[in-house]
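Thread: Newbie trying to understand structure tokens

Hi all, I'm a second-year student working on a class project, and my supervisor (Dr. K.) asked me to get a predicted structure for one chain before our next meeting. I've only ever worked with sequences, so writing a 3D structure as a token string is new to me. If someone could post the tokens and maybe explain what I'm looking at, I'd be very grateful. Here's the chain:
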Amino acid sequence: MSQSLIFACPADSEIFPSVGSSYDWRETPNPATSLAGRRLVDVTRSDAVLAFETLPGWHGKHLINAVLINGATVVMNDDACASDLQLPVSLPSPPSSDPTLRP
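---
Reply by user tm_fold:
Sure, no problem. This is what the structure looks like when written as tokens:
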């Protein structure tokens, strides 16, 4: 059976042949920043990075292609991508103004 090329970046000659994907998914050890086990409809930060190239620099020095939760594709600085992975994927809910609702 041939390996699907949908997860292969044409500029990647290093990672895809070894692991079958040129991309990493947002799976961090911190439950607040990880998408592992979450439904995307429950994520409130639509500008959060969903997936990104495994190694920066395939398309320019310190640049990385990424896909955001909202479906947009962006080219970003590798430090900006790494910083985004440290941010929570959901924003806190605003406090309720209804005094009958209690946590």
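A couple of things are worth pointing out once you decode it. The chain has a mean pLDDT of 88. The first helix runs from residue 16 to 19. Feel free to ask follow-ups in this thread.
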